[in-house]
Amino acid sequence: MIEQDLEKLAQGAPAPRDAAKRQALGAAMQAYEQSAQEKHHTAQGSAAGRRLIHIATSIWSGLMKQRYLAGSILATLMILPAAAYMTWQIVQDQQGWRPEDSAALDAGTRTGPEKAAKSPLQSDLEQRDRALTDTAPDAMIHVAPAEMAPVPQPSDTPVAKRAMKPAGALSQQSTGPAVSGLARQDFAVQADQHSLQPSAMPEAEAEQGRVQSFESNGVTPVAEEPVSTFSADVDTASYALMRQALRQGYLPDPQTVRVEELVNYFPYGYPGPDTAETPFRATVTVTPTPWNENTKLLHVGVKGYDIAPVERPRANLVFLIDVSGSMNAADKLPLLKSAFRLLLNTLEPDDTVSIVTYAGEAGTVLEPIRVAEKQEILDAMERLRPGGSTAGARGLQEAYRLAEKGFVKNGVNRVMLATDGDFNVGPSDDEALKSMIAAKRAGGVFLSVFGFGQGNYNDQLMQTIAQNGNGVAAYIDTLSEAEKTLVQEASASLFPIASDVKFQLEFNPAVVAEYRQIGFETRALKREDFNNDRVDAGEIGSGHTVTAIYEITPVGSPAVLTSDLRYGEAKPAPAPGAESGHGDEYAFLRIRAKAPGEAQSKLTEIPATMKNEVSDFNSASEDVRFSIAVAAFGQKLRKVDAVASYSYDAIEQIASEARGTDPFGYRSEFLQLVRLAERLGQ
Questions:
Q1: Do 458 and 522 lie in a common domain?
Q2: How far apart are CA 219 and CA 292, in angstroms?
Q3: Which residues of 385-401 are buried (b: 16+ CB within 10 A; e: fewer)?
Q4: H or E element at residue 643
Q5: What's the rounded Cα separation, in Å, for the pair 520 and 371?
Q6: What is the pTM of this model?
Q7: What is the residue range of 80's domain?
Q8: CB-based contact 46:161 (threshold 8 Å)
Q9: Nearest to 324 by CA among 379, 413, 392, 377
Q10: CA separation (Å) from 656 to 173, 413, 616, 668?
């Protein structure tokens, strides 16, 4: 057989065989993909991938021009070593790739016949991304000699394109194509105009530690465990992550959905306290449950005291800005700059601002300076450029140093961390960061976290940092979200009126057989933590609202899920009012909180009685009904069994009827998201 092949080859080169070509190219690309996964943290962004594919294509094209490599057995013997060489070349090149090489690559790949044709929508999005991308000169900001400045890079580097995650994956890695915030809004409109089907998205390897996994709260028998304790939570990052997923055409990972953050994303008009001496006021409402006629909902709405402008304390803010190579995308550093410009406009002339950047090393860009010198602050931010790895821990240390340097007694001292959420250089384990942040919090310097971009967003780490820093965790994916978070809610985000805020509900076993808290799984506390002022809890800012919802099952309801115990001290609950002087109470609410600067908490107690009950769900206030619709939606996305048979249409109807005046359009946007989720879930 070999002699016959050699005779044929002597007469002329045979025609290339497609199967042999595919075999060789497939082997090479398989090796490349495996290597790319192993080296993902080194080559951040799409430039490295395009460069490696370009090398592979060049090698393959050269080989195919040599006709003697195509044949039967002889061709196969020659092609396989070529594929091995191609694989070796790819791996070697990837190991030597540096973030700063992306500029040269982009210059060589943006033109030429090999450029793939783009759809009109893709072209439009890229044009908008380039419009949002910073266009300032590539000037370096001056830093101290001992510190490393960010590596400058061209500002027009195309946005990295990443594969979208399938719904249900436990990671934020590769969560969809990176689209600028402004362009993403237009994408959502176009998506909503078509009948959407579940996306067939490629599998991507889950990256551990990106998302905090937790089980949804289950049903708890009151006879066995009558007390529920949890920390306040006013974070909103989960809502923006959910919205981003739906607008890009896929259902969000259920583990990224924290129902309380969806509910508390919206402002509510609960009645607030009249004076600062009373930091907050709670309103209790009991309604029928829309998704279960045999249970009820106990709704608690808390409103914080709204500080008047003349009463607002001075602010000392440190902008800690991630300028690592992974921030080189239109929805990251350029959007971050625009967001912080908006925040700067809300500050008073006597407030102070300083800027710290971190990439390979931390660098002080701007020492504490009065906001009256606004142009100098703006110029410093304008000159920031991405490049290098992510030394987040060292950046935090430098930011705290500047916050302590400009410390304002009886004022607000806060580090504002803005990042895509990847701390991959230095002591980045959660416990080490928690200890450092907790120590600084005790000294009066708090920390808030603002996430940007996608692809390597570490949601779990950002939650950990914010919770331990007595600050909010928000995710900014559009300029309108930046305006909401940093302008409309600036007072709530920056100026606390109470810290270490804890809630505790004791349910009356004579009236309530079971309860299930909706959300707050990651904020649960032990019963004994409530009275321990050394245990950290959440913070409520000026004018903030906090909403908590419980589904309760009355005694004697056919919806009771747990059977009575045969042994032990627990006994069947008595008939309503039979063994208690509080037969008209569903539960007793206790709230503990510390005033700013104080070490000892104060206790507030409020009974939840039948006087707080409405017999008809539509008789509840618009705020109560809308927040319940949001809670139902969050449970649907988390696949909670209690709402499995409850439809998106029913949720949309409740939200639509309770939309109210909606001056900023947040509730109207929510209705659009419900419709998108329904179509994607079909």
A1: no
A2: 14
A3: bbbbbbbbbbbbbbbbe
A4: none
A5: 37
A6: 0.69
A7: 2-109
A8: yes
A9: 392
A10: 34, 41, 17, 8
C-beta separation of 599 from 628 below 8 A: no
Structure tokens at 128: 């908008």
Tell me the sheet residues that pair with 506. 227, 588
Amino acid at 223: A
User: What is the structure's pLDDT at 16?
Assistant: 54
DSSP one-letter code for 281: E
Residues 363 and 503 in one domain: no
3-state secondary structure 207-251: CCCCCCCCCCCCCEECCCCCEEEEECCCCCHHHHHHHHHHHCCCC
Q: Are strands 446-452 and 473-476 parallel, antiparallel or unpaired?
A: parallel
pLDDT of residue 260: 97
Residues 6+ positions from 327 with CB-CB distance below 8 Å:
333, 336, 386, 419, 420, 452, 453
Helices (H) and strands (E) in the chain, counts: 19, 16
Tell how strand 496-507 and strand 362-370 pair up: unpaired
Count Cβ neighbours within 10 Å for each residue of 597-608 and write b for 16 or more, e otherwise: eeeebeebebeb
Q: Residue 113: its pLDDT value, please?
A: 36
Does 432 score more than 70 pLDDT?
Answer: yes
Does the residue 197 lie in any domain?
no
Which 8-state DSSP code applies to residue 45? S
Position 161 pLDDT exceeds 60:
no
The CATH number covering residue 395 comes to 3.40.50.410
Claim to verify: residue 585 and residue 602 sit in the same structural domain: yes
Kind and range of the H or E run holding 319: strand 315-322
Residue 403 maps to a domain:
yes
